[in-house]
Design goal:
With 218 residues, this protein is α+β, with helices and mostly antiparallel strands. The chain is built from 4 helices and 9 strands, in the order ααββββββαβαββ. It folds into 2 domains: 114 residues, SH3 type barrels, CATH 2.30.30.30; 76 residues, Ribosomal Protein S8, Chain: A, domain 1, CATH 3.30.1370.110. It is rod-shaped, with a radius of gyration of 42 Å.
Length: 218
C-alpha cells in the first residue's frame, strides 16, 4: 500500500508541475482538486487504509475495458479521478492525455481504457468495370426477298444492335425490285433517333439497291 500511495502522490506532483508551467489562468479548480486528492492520500496513509481509486474525487468513469490503449481512446486516470482522451503515445510508454482544458503527460500503464476511439469508416472506391461491347451484327443487313413488314422489324433490331456495338456506319441491302422495300426503309430511317444521315449507295456500293446509313455516335 505504501508503494501505491507514493506512486499516486508522485503523479499528483507531476500534474501540479505541468499546470504550473502552463500558467496560473484557469488552474484554481484543478489545484483544489489536486490538493483534495493529496489530503485524501495522506489521510488514508495515516489510517492505513487501502487506496480506493474510484472514490478519491468524484469524476466521470465507466466500466473498464480490456485491450491496448491507442490514440483517440477515452481513458480514466484513477489517481486523478478524471477521464480524458489520448492524444499521442510515445515509444517510452508515456501518453499525452487531454483532461478537460489541460494536456498532461502520463504513463500509459496508469491509464484505464474506458471507450475505444470511434474510427471513421471510409467508403471504398467503387470500381466501375465497363462491360465488353455487344457482338457486332455486321456492317450489312440484307433484306432482299423479305416482306416489307418483316424487313422493317429486322431493320429496327439491327439498328439497335449496331448502335450498341458502336458501328460508325452500315449498309442496308434492299435491292431495287419494285422499290417498295427501299421506300419503306428510307422513310423509316429519315427520322430515326439512331440515324445521323442516310444516302443511296454510290458507285461500287450497290447504287439504288443499297442505302448507306451513318449512325449517331459513330
Amino acid at each position: 500500500m505504501q508503494t501505491e500511495l507514493e506512486s499516486v502522490r508522485r503523479e499528483i506532483d507531476q500534474v501540479r508541475r505541468q499546470l504550473s508551467r502552463g500558467g496560473t489562468a484557469g488552474t484554481s479548480a484543478h489545484e483544489e482538486f489536486l490538493s483534495r486528492a493529496a489530503q485524501e492520500i495522506s489521510r488514508r496513509q495515516q489510517a492505513g487504509e487501502e487506496v480506493n481509486r474510484e472514490v478519491l474525487i468524484p469524476g466521470e468513469s465507466s466500466e473498464r475495458l480490456d485491450g491496448p490503449i491507442e490514440v483517440g481512446d477515452r481513458v480514466f486516470v484513477a489517481s486523478l479521478q478524471a477521464s480524458g482522451e489520448v492524444l499521442s503515445i510515445s515509444p517510452n510508454g508515456e501518453a499525452d492525455v487531454q483532461l478537460g482544458k489541460f494536456r498532461l503527460k502520463l504513463p500509459v500503464k496508469r491509464l484505464e481504457l474506458r471507450q475505444k476511439a470511434v474510427k471513421e469508416t471510409t467508403s471504398s472506391p467503387v470500381s466501375v468495370r465497363m462491360g465488353a461491347l455487344p457482338e457486332s451484327p455486321g456492317l450489312e443487313l440484307d433484306l432482299r426477298g423479305e416482306r416489307v413488314e418483316d424487313g422493317l422489324d429486322r431493320l429496327e433490331r439491327y439498328l439497335n444492335s449496331a448502335s450498341l456495338a458502336r458501328l460508325p456506319w452500315v449498309r442496308i441491302i434492299h435491292g431495287k425490285g419494285t422499290g417498295a422495300m427501299r421506300d419503306a426503309i428510307r422513310t423509316a430511317l429519315k427520322n430515326h433517333p439512331l440515324v445521323r444521315e442516310s444516302r443511296s449507295g454510290g458507285d461500287g456500293e450497290g447504287g439504288e439497291g443499297v442505302t448507306v446509313v451513318r449512325l449517331v455516335g459513330g
